[in-house]
Amino acid sequence: MISTAIRVARVGSAAELAAAVLMMLGFPAIMVAALVPSVYAFAAAAAVTYLADHYLHRKGSYLVNRLSKVRAGLSIRFLIRELLLILLLARLDLANNLIYYGAIGCFIAFYGLQAPHGAEVTLIRNRRRMPVATRNVDLKSRLHIPDAPPFGMLDRSAEKMLHLDLAAVVGLLISAEAGSSLAGFIGIGITLGLGSLYVLALVPYVRGNKIPPDADTVLAAVDDWLREYKPQTLLYFSGSKDSTYQVNMWLETMEQLDSRPLIILRERIILQTLAPTTVPVICVPGGVHLMNMDLSTVRVALYAANVGKNIHLLRVPTMKHVFIGHGDSDKLASVNPFSKAYDEVWTAGRAGRDRYAIADVGVRDEDIVEVGRPQLAPIQGWEGVPEGRIPTVLYAPTWEGWDGDPGNTSIMLAGANIVKKLIKADPPVRVLYKPHPFTGTVLPKAGSAHRKIVALVEKAAAERAADPRFAADAAAQTEAKAELARIEARLAELAGSTGEKGDEAEATRDGVVDVEKHEEIARLRDEWNDAYWRSFPHWEHRVIEGAEPPLFDCFNLSDAMVSDISSVVSDFLASGKPYAVTDSAGLGVEEFKRQNTAVRAATILSNSAAEIGELLAAVRDPAADPQADDRKELKEYLLGPDEPASIEQFNTAVADLALKAETRNLGQESRAAAAGTPGADELSDALSAKPPTV
Asked: Is 89:103 a contact under the CB 8 Å cutoff?
């Protein structure tokens, strides 16, 4: 029942739900206390509403945000509480007392301060929002970007300003109970004094040298940097906050390019959630600003998603445009007809090429280039179960999906059966359970199934720890845990020293990555992963939730995997290890394999998981594994050959296409010079100098 209420109210936890209920009940309670009248009851109910309101705002509760849509926003709630306080004073026969008129005058004056305060905050934010935001771009030497107001002055500023009424409210309640006006007038003075100081403190930031440069100056500085840096290969991305992973997956590849890389983003929210990188990043929300940007040295533009805003860069003829996507799969998105707008489409392996041929959406075979998957480089190959260890099986189910189809995931229909058979296997195996982070967000049954699996794994781990057959090296684990603590302390220290401060303008000014710290953080994360696995016995069953350790690290520690239809299966193929996929929808082995290319070398499990023994047999005796050759062939078909390395293939493809772009541009210049007329590029530049008309 509570989980249903949480879902309906769209709050994140039972604590948020409780706070919302208390706030909703608190206001009627305040009114009753005012009518009774009871100062103590009023004070208690008011305190509940203050605390609940503050908690919900701090949590960013969806419910609080919706209240403003039904005319019960933050200002209204504070005003109601203050009006009810005046009602309380009237009911206490203080209507003829000076404190009564002082309260009315205080709240009128206090709300009079809200207008200039709100205007200042809005003006400061608008003026400090520059036309572009950057990372790893040296604008500090080209522009004077002043410091933002102290963070506390702009963060949740309306809430902070309104909470200044607390001094007046407390003082008036003390006066109402004590029968003396002194406390009330002291509270009124504090409230109005602090409110006035808040307004005055913001004044310097709306004028003079506290204002950042105008848009034209900023854009000119960015163009100056571009002319100096001379980017050659560009990764372009537009999307929502939830799609940031699609660009994050290409950051390491961009860092390894032989040419000078640049990343162009179109939404500020993407920049805010972008993973750390050493590659220069420019966020350009305005289409006209992008079209007027000096990208004349770029020869190859890479696109990770098919979105409408791609047209703003696709119109540039001096560079070649490539769709690289964000992972190969059998989904329709992998054969989007829009892909024929690009000069080339790059796929991981032959499967991507065949996919386009079968779909017949207008992408020509000669425009498809197979480049492998550079992101899979960290995944290690398999030489069998290490000597002296028991096999490790990773269970990594996907989630139920937005449509809530039980066939999307094995967790509800087969999850418990899979885990039970693995923990009861003889000879024994170790189970690593790593659920998808979205599990249970759509279907409560999926959440319940997840919790049941967690309980199974934890119980089995406790039983194994008590089994005398399994001995732990306590000294080694203690040493590993101490190393973990050291690494985490250093990572926290580095995060504190490199964390962004101030607003977007300050982040743009100061957002040049410290390469040494960036490399140290990467090294420490690798050391953390190594220490994590050594901090508990190699035979211990484990539930792994959260971002750390990463999925690829779990791949490397496992000898086999059980999963569902998702990109996880295709990625795991890079290891060459045995794997099983659950046919949760009950399609049957042949039809399941026909519909899903990535499972053609897998052990197919029914919901009973009766076939799990086939997977374990392949792990225990790799020489007798009937699907080893099939996995090798499927891996090359889906992901491309092992040699040359994928990053080498990718760099070669970039260089080849850059040469084509340069050849095309030289041809245009030659034809234009021979004819004595402007070329296509000159005409394009002339058109882009004018904003497009609607």
From this structure: yes
